[in-house]
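Customer escalation, tier 2.

The customer says the design service returned an amino acid string that "doesn't look like it belongs to this structure." They asked us to rerun it and document both sides in this ticket. The original structure tokens are below, unchanged.
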């Protein structure tokens, strides 16, 4: 085997090793995200918590075929998604809002919330006013889908609209959710 072939073979082995390492890292991340602690299982049945917080789904995403990171596959709620940790619920909410902006053209606070909480199910005007007040964003404010500051403030305010202010939104879980994007 000549030098060129040995270099090519060596590069191929290194590349395969890197790819295998990445695949394994992603698999471990996925499996760890799906793991549910005993504490979380107890939390799912704690009727003293608002439903969104009980499910680690603070914006009350409905059950869907999405394969969210941290999604609990043996859902006990029946209507809303359940997540293994709060950060994954916030992550799913942020990703959904980014989809509203990028795919559906819902660029303003008012457009996002009108899609999220339609008037046939919610008092959308009150929801918009509440989130606007809590974030300081005008209803007509354009939301940047890549802005950590805007999206984390938005989901924090929306979680209060969805669940009430007690307990307060977990700001570290929101930041952790952003960090898992």
């Amino acid at each position: 085997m000549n030098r060129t072939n040995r270099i090519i073979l060596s590069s191929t082995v290194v590349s395969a090793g890197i790819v295998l390492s990445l695949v394994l890292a992603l698999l471990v991340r996925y499996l760890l995200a799906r793991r549910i602690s005993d504490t979380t299982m107890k939390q799912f049945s704690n009727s003293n918590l608002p439903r969104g917080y009980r499910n680690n789904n603070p914006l009350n995403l409905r059950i869907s075929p999405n394969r969210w990171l941290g999604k609990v596959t043996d859902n006990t709620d029946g209507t809303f998604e359940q997540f293994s940790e709060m950060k994954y619920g916030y992550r799913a909410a942020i990703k959904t809002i980014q989809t509203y902006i990028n795919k559906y053209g819902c660029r303003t606070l008012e457009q996002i919330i009108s899609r999220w909480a339609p008037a046939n199910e919610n008092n959308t005007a009150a929801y918009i006013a509440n989130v606007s007040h809590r974030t300081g964003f005008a209803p007509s404010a354009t939301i940047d889908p890549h802005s950590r500051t805007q999206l984390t403030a938005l989901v924090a305010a929306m979680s209060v609209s969805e669940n009430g202010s007690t307990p307060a939104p977990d700001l570290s879980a929101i930041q952790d959710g952003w960090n898992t994007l």
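Tier 2 assessment: The sequence is consistent with the input. The mean pLDDT is 89. The CA atoms of residues 94 and 151 lie 7 Å apart. Sent an explanation to the customer and offered a walkthrough call.
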